[in-house]
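Support request from a user on the community tier.

User writes: "When I paste my structure tokens into the form, the page sometimes reloads and wipes my input. The last time it worked, I copied everything first. Here is what I submitted, just in case something in the input itself triggers the reload:"
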């Protein structure tokens, strides 16, 4: 048996390997069903630290579901599997590979979309034609706004579905959100709805009994109760089929919330 075939399952990269692979993008896999539950990028031994559930403070805002999955895997007597998809990357390449993988695997525990997903991420050919044929949002909106990037919209023409997706539930700065005149629902860089938030509430079953998946596990987040904005406001921000966001400061490259003048 040669030295390569004798290598046991690694638990870390030594310094030489770390220098050679540089920045990389990886997937974490649940061995119980073979499903990918997290996509990330990193250097050094980040993939191993993540697989062991040792990283507990970072920018993503839905960390508990990821840790919950890791702990369930361990409780079943298994270990988290992982794959390095690409290595030797620069920052821009790592962002793009990570974003593409996040789009490719549904039901991830990642808190946010990959870099650029909102603006240039997963779309059908029809959606691309629609998007780039739409009018642009005003360069300097005259109102205080919160723009929320929604995901998993089944029907872009279903106004009730858009409303329910945008209003529940978010890790948001409540004080800033309460200053907003309107809340805009954004999908892949296009504004699809405009709403007035009458009240921001903790995301609990008691506050949102009409939301069937409100189980209290996201009580640290917020949702709002409100209504669709007046017709003239909807025309300004949404139009007939949606309006493209062209301002870099309002694009949802990685984080789901954007604020304008509030």
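"...and here is what came back when it finally went through:"
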């Amino acid at each position: 048996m040669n030295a390569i075939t004798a290598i046991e399952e690694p638990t870390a990269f030594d310094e030489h390997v770390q220098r050679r692979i540089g920045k990389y993008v990886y997937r974490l896999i649940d061995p119980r069903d073979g499903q990918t539950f997290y996509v990330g990028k990193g250097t050094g031994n980040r993939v191993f630290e993540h697989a062991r559930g040792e990283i507990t403070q970072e920018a993503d805002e839905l960390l508990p579901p990821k840790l919950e999955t890791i702990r369930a895997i361990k409780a079943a007597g298994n270990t988290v599997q992982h794959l390095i998809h690409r290595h030797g990357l620069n920052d821009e390449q790592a962002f793009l590979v990570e974003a593409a993988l996040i789009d490719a695997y549904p039901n991830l525990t990642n808190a946010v979309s990959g870099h650029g997903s909102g603006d240039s991420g997963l779309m059908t050919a029809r959606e691309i034609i629609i998007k780039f044929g739409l009018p642009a949002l005003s360069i300097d909106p005259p109102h205080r706004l919160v723009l929320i990037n929604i995901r998993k919209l089944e029907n872009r023409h279903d106004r009730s579905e858009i409303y329910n997706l945008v209003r529940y539930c978010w890790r948001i700065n409540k004080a800033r959100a309460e200053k907003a005149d309107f809340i805009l629902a954004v999908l892949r860089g296009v504004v699809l709805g405009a709403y007035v938030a009458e009240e921001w509430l903790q995301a609990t079953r008691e506050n949102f009994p009409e939301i069937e998946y409100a189980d209290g596990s996201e009580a640290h987040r917020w949702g709002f109760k409100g209504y669709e904005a007046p017709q003239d406001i909807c025309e300004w921000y949404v139009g007939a089929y949606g309006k493209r966001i062209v301002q870099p400061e309002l694009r949802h490259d990685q984080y789901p919330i954007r604020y304008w003048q509030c």
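Agent notes: The reload is a front-end session timeout and is unrelated to the input. Residues 15-115 form a domain with the GIY-YIG endonuclease fold (CATH 3.40.1440.10). The first helix runs from residue 15 to 21. Escalated to web team.
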